[in-house]
Amino acid sequence: MIRLSILYPNTAGARFDWAYYLGTHMPLVRRRLGDALKAVSVEQGLTGGAPGAPAAYVALCHLTFDTMPAFQAAFAAHATELMADIPNYTSIEPTIQINEVKL
Fold first, then answer.
1. I want to staple 48 with a disulfide (CB 3.0 to 4.6 A). Which of 28, 53, 78, 88 is the partner?
2. CB–CB of 47/37 below 8 Å?
């Protein structure tokens, strides 16, 4: 399994519109990636490890695919559209990482 993780760093003064992200962007992601997308997880950062510390990330999104070729084929066809939608919900430049799920 392959997991695409999209992390939105908690940046001072940054904007993140949860209503748009959950109500518009994520449904768009699901529609465009179709059956290749096996699982989705969206998390909202609450706090850091130390009491009262801010969360390192405002939001985390994890998209799971069976294989790297399945991810690449699904994403390549819609990458421009999905990436162009980012400014509609945030001013944060996301960090993206692709992982192989081991457990």
1. 53
2. no
All structural domains of the chain: 2-100 (3.30.70.100)
What angle (nearest 5°) sits at the alpha carbon of residue 10, between those of residues 71 and 93?
Answer: 45
Closest CA to 74 of 28, 26, 34, 30: 34
Provide, for the chain, the percentages of residues in helix, strand and coil under a 3-state DSSP scheme, each rounded to the nearest 5: 35, 30, 30
pLDDT in tens, 18-68: 999 999 999 999 999 999 999 999 999 999 989 889 999 999 999 999 999
DSSP state of 89: T
The Cα–Cα gap between 93 and 103 comes to 29
Q: How far is it between the farthest Cα atoms of the chain?
A: 43
